[in-house]
From TrEMBL:
GO terms for biological process: glucose metabolic process. Monomer. Gene3D superfamilies: Alpha-D-Glucose-1,6-Bisphosphate, subunit A, domain 3. It is an enzyme of class 5 (isomerase). It comes from Hibiscus trionum. The lineage of its organism: Eukaryota, Viridiplantae, Streptophyta, Embryophyta, Tracheophyta. CDD domains: PMM_PGM (cd03089). The keyword Phosphoprotein applies. This is phosphoglucomutase (alpha-D-glucose-1,6-bisphosphate-dependent).
Amino acid sequence: MGTSISSMQMRNLPIYQSGFVNRGTFYCSAASSATAIPSMDKVDFLKLQNGSDIRGVAVSGVEGEPVSLTEPVTEAIAAAFAAWLLDKKKVDASRKLRVSIGHDSRISAQQLQDAVSRGIASAGLEVVQYGLASTPAMFNSTLTEDEAFLCPADGAIMITASHLPYNRNGFKFFTNAGGLGKSDIKDILERAANIYSDFLAKGYLVKNASESVKKVDYMSVYTSDLVKAVRKAAGNIEKPLEGFHIIVDAGNGAGGFFAAKVLEPLGAVTSGSQFLEPDGMFPNHIPNPEDKAAMKAITEAVLSKKADLGIIFDTDVDRSAAVDSSGRELNRNRLIALMSAIVLEEHPGTTIVTDSVTSDGLTSFIEKKLGGKHHRFKRGYKNVIDEAIRLNSVGEESHLAIETSGHGALKENHWLDDGAYLMVKLLNKLASAKASGRGDGSKVLTDLVEGLEEPAFAVELRLKIDQSHPDLKGRSFREYGEAVLQHLENSIASNPKLQKAPVNYEGVRVSGFGGWFLLRLSLHDPVLPLNIEAPSHEDAVKLGLGVAAAAKEFQALDTSSLDKFVQPH
């Protein structure tokens, strides 16, 4: 393998003390030649699409989950991205396009990185490998202008499957215009299917990347930019976080850099930080700021170490959340409220775009307490970001697009959903409070969400559509789901205790009994998720009964979780 480092070796390197592996630029071949030819099966490439990402199974061993991201499939996808990029960029022949490649801590990362490198090189493009990296850093590499680090890249590929289990992996793609959208991904997968059928016809041989592959430590550029942002916000103080004790939980994903590379240079103490080492088996908890076990782990660490703040990232660092010194979680609606408060101080009256499952309490907090405007849109971080961009283009100012999952993007940061940058905005608040003489740690953040009404009871139930049920009568699960929603909407109209939301972009959202519910169709799966928030369990049941009455007419809908919820205990 030349100079590349296996994920097992990576695990044993003290890379967070000594800086990232692969300092400077050196060269190696992307794979050894004369490797055994993998078996080639027919592949439905479009099934690998997951919204604006590509996702699949990369490691065998889980029953019922055959490997779909094989080396030939991966190489075809990378070659397809190269072809798509050549079409988009339309450069003259004198300049080679350059693609940067990074990966998170998954165990399949090295193998996929090699296959991606071969695919890019086979199209005649230059390959620059970053090794362990974060998704936001990959987008940033298309903006950075620094030839010493072979930047800017014309395109970037992040190898990640976010918080999914260890056997999965996938790809996110970027140009300097941002992340690719759904239609681009479909285009790339269609091209990949043609390239793959060529492999099938002509035989597939694992060969060296025709050009040598370059390696750079881009993460050092990215992290120094984050450090500079905090110093600047604090009035150019070298160590604006001196005296703060901040704990990082990276969940063994790619976010471990934040402790040694961002917080420590700013003067913070990071002792007690946990799971910073990359380990693609995720032995401690799922790296996911929405996961209860993950949030419990960071909360316990903050309380036991009496830290000022806890910070947690997902696997590829495009999502994050925090915990204050009292152990209060700053995620989901609370994180949106906190970011809204920060952004509305900087941009009074601006519109905050969120996904559809945000609470009514958040709307009144943004609009009545902060004087902003809450624009509740659809689920899907790309949908939320694209809507904020659209609003700006039609003259409605928006500076923040954020989803309850922890994906948050700011206009000032090129509309990139960067979990590390979101946390930098919180650190800026801590630093400026300290500079102005406040000595009460993270209380400045807690105070910002004062007055946010939170439901006493919240639940999400998932109603699955059985696609083989005769009640579908030849319809797709999407058409069937739409029929369920239409029927629910009609039945609400005749119920005086329930009011349909006047403006709504996804599913059926209804207020009543002091709370609300939203029934919507999942973006990708044959599932209707139902979110209910209410002042009590009893009120939540009353809302649930309104849905249950309408849903019972649809035999292909599995309402067992809802039936159980509304049954008297």
